[in-house]
Design brief:
The complex is a heterodimer of chains A (592) and B (163). In chain A, 39% of the residues lie in helices and 14% in strands. Chain A is an alpha/beta fold and 592 residues long. Chain A folds into 5 domains: 102 residues, Glutaredoxin (3-Layer(aba) Sandwich); 210 residues, NADH-ubiquinone oxidoreductase 51kDa subunit (Rossmann fold); 84 residues, Ubiquitin-like (UB roll), CATH 3.10.20.600; 89 residues, de novo design (two linked rop proteins) (Up-down Bundle); 56 residues, Alpha-Beta Plaits, CATH 3.30.70. In chain A, the strands form 6 sheets. Chain A has a 5-stranded mixed beta sheet with strand order 12-11-15-13-14. In chain A, strands 2-1-3-4 form a 4-stranded mixed beta sheet, with helices on one face. In chain A, strand 17 and strand 18 form a beta hairpin. In chain A, helix 6 runs parallel beside helix 10 and helix 21 packs across helix 22. The longest helix of chain A has 18 residues. Chain B is α+β, with helices and mostly antiparallel strands. Chain B has 7 helices and 4 strands, in the order H-H-H-H-E-H-H-E-E-E-H. The chains are: A alpha/beta (592), B alpha+beta (163). Chains A and B meet through helix 1, strand 9, strand 11, strand 15 and helix 17 of A and helix 2, helix 4, helix 5 and helix 6 of B.
Chain lengths: 592, 163
C-alpha cells in the first residue's frame, strides 16, 4: 500500500511535511514498513482542502488531513482496511461522502496531461518517473526519429505555447531548426510572474523530469546541445527538486554526452530570475540570463535567429514542455482530438478567488467558464453572486455573466476582450469593485514596467493616477474618455507584450462595468462598498443591541456606546477597516 | 542613505571574492553573483556593489542598474523577522490589502521599511502559490494562511518572546 502525501507549496504551508513525518512514524510504530510506503508527491491540485492524502491502490482520497490524524489513518485504514470517514470529502450539494477522487465534481471534467504525474509520483525519485513511461518519448525521438519527423509530430499536434502568447510550438521549433549556427540554445521559461498563477511551479515541484525530457527532445529537434532553465529565485522548492532531477538524470545517462548511445549530447543548467514580471517576455528573459537588466528588445530579430549570446535560441514555457513527452508517446492525432479547432489539448488553470474549490485544474480547451466555475470550482464562496472572472493576469481582462458559456480557447478569450495568458483565473463576487480591480492591476504594471519605452513607463503611471482619482470620487466624465483613449495609445505603441496588454484590465472593466465607473464619477459612490474614500460605516440603530463587539474590535477605538445601548461610529477617526462589519452578528453595521 | 561608508566584514568580503572567482569573474554571471552576495550580507548596500563591480570588472553603475531593476534584490537591510504579505490577485480579492494595512498600522512603518529596533520589516510579494490559503502572509520561512485583520496581532505576538 502507498500513502501519497501532497508536498506542493500550498499543502506544505498547512503542515503537510509534519503530516508526512507523523505518518512515517506511525507506520514504523506499527511495524508496517514492509507493507506501507509513505510518499511525498507533487500537487494534487485541490488546494482548497489541503493537505491531501491519497491511498493507493484503493484510491481513497482524504482531505484536510492534520498531523494528529496520522495515528487514526494508519491504525484504521492501513491496519484494519477501514476508511476514516470523517476525513473524506463531502459533496457540498448532496452532503454525500466521496472516497474516490474521480467521482468528485472537482476532478470529473479534468483531463490531466501536463499534470499527469503531479500527485502520483515522488518527484525526487527518477525511478518513479521512469515507471510512469518517463524518458520513453525521448528514447523514441533520439533513436528512431529524425529531427524533422519529431518536429512534424509537434506541429501536427497543434500545440500552442502555454505561457500566454499561444504561438504554435512546432512552428517555433521549425524556425529555430532551420537557422544554422555553431551553437544553439534551448531555454525553459519558468519565470512565472502572473500573480495568482502557479501551474509552472506545481509542474516543476511535482514532475521535474518531464521538463528535462522535453528539453532534450527540443534540443535534438533544433540542433542545440545546451539547455537553460530560467526560474524565479522565489521558488526554492522547485529549484531544489529540479537540481535533484538534473543530478539523477545525469547519473542515469539521460543527460550528458551520447545520451542512450544516440550520439546526441545535451545538458541543462539552471539560471535564476530575481523578480521581474517583464522577464516572462522572451527577449527580456534572454537579457536577464546574460546578467543584464531584463529589458525587452524589438523583434525581429527573434530569439530563433539571435537569442542567448547572439545564438539561435528556442524559448518555451514549462507547461508547454510538460505536454511534449505525451504528444510524442501518444501521437499528434490523439492530442489534436482534444480541444477546439484552433486550440488543441488541455490548459492548466489556477482557479482562485471567491470560489469554493480553489486549486489547480487541467481541462480540455473548449470547456466553458460556467463548467469551470460551477462544476469544478463548486460555485461562489458563501453563496454570493458571481460578478466577474479575470483571466490572463495583468494582461487579461474581466469576463462576466454573458461570457460564461463561450468555449474557452486562445481565440475566443481574445475575442471576448481578455486572453488566455498563463492561466490565472480569479473569480470575483458582488463585493469586488471593478474599478479597484483595474487599479490593482495597474499598480502591478506600473511597478513591473521596465521603463525602457515611454508609452508603458509614463502611460501606465497616468492610467493608474486616473484610476486613483476615480476611486476617490474626484474624476469627471471627461476623464473616463481620456482613460479609454490613453489605454488604446499604450496598447498600440508599447514595445513589448507587457505594455501592449497592460491596459486590458481597464478596457475590459470599462466595457463590461461602465455603470460602476459612472457611479464613482457622478454619484461619488462605490456600488460594491470597496473604495474607502467613497464609503462610510454606519450603525443601523434598530438592529443594534449594544453587544459591544464592534467597539471592542475597533482597532482605533472610534466606536462609542454603553452596553445594551445603540453604538455610534466617529466618522473622523474611522479608518474604514471593516472590522466592525465583520464582527457584528446582528446586521447592525452598514456600508453606505 | 547616509554618506558614511559602511565597513564590511573582511571575512565576508573574502567570501564574496571567492564566489566571484567560482563564476570565473565573468560579467555575464552578475545576477548569480548578486544572489550569493545577498545571501552573505543579507542585503546589497553600495559598498557590496562596489566589490562586485571590481571583481567582475564592470562599472558600479551597471551593478546598481541591475540591483535596482529586480525586486528580489534589496539595498536596505531587512528585519530579523521579515514579513511578506502576498498581494497576488487571489490574495487581493480575499482581503490582503486590509491585512497589509493592519501590519502597517501596528508596526508604524510603510512597505519596504524596517522597524527602528530592526525586528520586523514589511514587503509585498506576488503569489507564493498557496492561493487556497489566501490571504497569505510569510514571516521568514513560515507561512500563515487565511489571515484576517484580527489575526495580525496574534502573528506578531508569536515573535514577542525574543528580546
Amino acid at each position: 500500500m502507498h500513502m501519497l502525501v501532497c508536498g506542493g507549496t500550498g499543502c506544505r504551508a498547512s503542515a503537510s511535511d509534519m503530516l508526512y513525518e507523523s505518518l512515517k512514524k506511525e507506520v514504523q510504530d506499527n511495524n508496517l514498513e514492509n507493507e506501507v510506503q509513505v510518499v511525498t508527491t507533487g500537487c494534487f491540485g485541490f488546494c482548497e482542502k489541503g493537505p491531501i492524502v491519497k491511498m493507493i491502490p484503493d484510491n481513497t482520497f482524504y482531505v484536510s488531513v492534520e498531523p494528529k490524524d496520522a495515528k487514526e489513518l494508519v491504525a484504521e485504514h492501513a491496519l484494519k482496511g477501514r476508511k476514516v470517514n470523517r476525513l473524506l470529502y463531502v459533496d457540498p450539494t448532496n452532503k454525500e461522502q466521496i472516497s474516490d477522487s474521480k467521482h468528485m465534481g472537482f476532478y470529473k471534467k479534468q483531463i490531466r496531461i501536463a499534470l499527469r504525474n503531479c500527485g502520483l509520483i515522488n518527484p525526487e525519485n527518477i525511478e518513479e518517473y521512469l515507471a510512469a513511461d518517463g524518458y520513453e518519448a525521448m528514447g523514441k525521438v533520439l533513436l528512431e526519429m529524425t529531427p524533422e519527423e519529431a518536429i512534424k509530430v509537434v506541429l501536427d499536434s497543434g500545440l500552442r505555447g502555454r505561457g500566454g502568447g499561444g504561438f504554435p510550438t512546432g512552428l517555433k521549433w521549425q524556425i529555430a531548426s532551420k537557422n544554422e549556427a555553431d551553437q544553439k540554445y534551448v531555454v525553459c521559461n519558468a519565470d512565472e510572474g502572473d500573480p495568482g498563477a502557479f501551474m509552472d511551479r506545481s509542474i516543476l515541484e511535482g514532475d521535474p523530469h518531464t521538463v528535462l525530457e522535453a528539453m532534450v527532445i527540443n534540443g535534438y529537434c533544433i540542433g542545440a546541445t545546451k539547455g537553460l532553465i530560467y526560474i524565479r529565485a522565489e521558488y526554492p522548492l522547485a529549484i531544489q527538486r529540479l537540481k535533484i532531477a538534473i543530478g539523477q538524470a545525469r547519473e542515469f545517462g539521460l543527460l550528458g554526452t551520447d545520451i542512450l548511445g544516440s550520439g546526441f549530447d545535451f545538458d541543462v543548467e539552471i539560471r535564476y530570475g530575481a523578480g521581474a514580471f517583464v522577464c516572462g517576455e522572451e527577449t527580456a528573459l534572454i537579457h536577464s540570463m546574460e546578467g543584464e537588466r531584463g529589458e525587452p528588445t524589438f523583434k525581429p530579430p527573434f530569439p530563433a535567429q539571435s537569442g542567448y549570446l547572439g545564438k539561435p535560441t528556442n524559448v518555451n514555457n514549462v507547461e508547454t514542455y510538460a505536454n511534449i513527452p505525451v504528444i510524442i508517446n501518444k501521437g499528434a492525432e490523439w492530442f489534436s482530438s482534444i480541444g477546439t479547432e484552433k486550440s488543441k489539448g488541455t490548459k492548466v488553470f489556477a482557479l482562485a478567488g471567491k470560489i469554493n474549490n480553489v486549486g489547480l485544474i487541467e481541462v480540455p480547451m473548449g470547456i466553458t467558464l460556467r463548467e469551470v466555475i460551477y462544476e469544478i470550482g463548486g460555485g461562489i464562496k458563501g453563496g454570493k453572486k458571481f460578478k466577474a472572472v479575470q483571466t490572463g493576469g495583468p494582461s487579461g481582462g474581466c469576463l462576466t455573466e454573458k461570457h460564461l458559456d463561450i468555449p474557452i480557447d486562445f481565440d475566443n478569450l481574445i475575442a471576448a476582450g481578455s486572453m488566455m495568458g498563463s492561466g490565472g483565473m480569479i473569480v470575483m463576487d458582488e463585493d469586488d469593485c471593478m474599478v479597484a480591480v483595474a487599479k490593482f492591476y495597474l499598480e502591478f504594471t506600473v511597478e513591473e514596467s521596465c521603463g525602457k519605452c515611454s508609452p508603458c513607463r509614463v502611460g501606465n503611471k497616468r492610467l493608474h493616477e486616473q484610476l486613483d482619482l476615480i476611486t476617490k470620487g474626484k474624476a469627471t466624465m471627461e476623464d473616463l474618455d481620456k482613460l479609454k483613449n490613453l489605454s488604446n495609445v499604450i496598447k498600440d505603441t508599447s514595445l513589448c507584450g507587457l505594455g501592449q496588454t497592460s491596459p486590458n484590465p481597464v478596457l475590459s472593466t470599462m466595457e463590461n462595468f461602465y455603470d460602476e465607473y459612472v457611479a464613482h464619477v457622478t454619484d461619488h459612490r462605490c456600488p460594491s462598498g470597496v473604495c474607502k474614500d467613497l464609503i462610510r460605516y454606519e450603525v443601523i440603530a434598530e438592529n443594534c443591541v449594544g453587544c459591544t463587539a464592534c467597539a471592542r474590535n475597533c482597532p482605533v477605538n472610534c466606536i462609542s456606546g454603553e452596553r445594551k445601548q445603540v453604538h455610534l461610529i466617529d466618522q473622523v477617526l474611522c479608518i474604514k477597516c471593516g472590522a466592525c462589519l465583520e464582527k457584528c452578528k446582528f446586521n447592525a453595521i452598514a456600508v453606505i | 542613505m547616509t554618506s558614511v561608508k559602511l565597513k564590511l566584514k573582511e571575512s565576508d568580503v573574502q567570501k564574496l571574492k571567492e564566489v566571484a572567482k567560482s563564476f570565473n569573474n565573468e560579467a555575464g554571471e552578475l545576477i548569480n553573483v548578486l544572489h550569493k552576495a545577498q545571501e552573505i550580507f543579507g542585503y546589497l548596500p553600495a559598498e557590496v556593489q562596489e566589490v562586485v563591480a571590481q571583481e567582475l570588472n564592470v562599472p558600479v553603475a551597471k551593478v546598481y542598474g541591475v540591483v535596482t531593476f529586480y525586486s528580489f534584490f534589496t539595498m536596505l537591510p531587512r528585519g530579523r523577522y521579515p514579513i511578506s504579505i502576498c498581494t497576488g490577485t487571489a490574495c487581493y480579492v480575499r482581503g490582503a490589502e486590509k491585512v497589509l494595512d493592519e501590519f502597517k498600522r501596528i508596526l508604524k512603518i510603510p512597505v519596504g521599511e524596517t522597524t527602528s529596533d530592526g525586528k520586523f520589516s514589511i514587503t509585498c510579494l506576488r503569489c507564493v502559490g498557496a492561493c487556497g490559503l489566501a490571504p497569505v502572509v510569510m514571516v521568514g520561512d513560515k507561512t500563515y494562511g487565511r489571515v484576517t485583520t484580527d489575526g495580525v496581532k496574534d502573528i506578531l505576538k508569536e515573535y514577542d518572546t525574543e528580546d
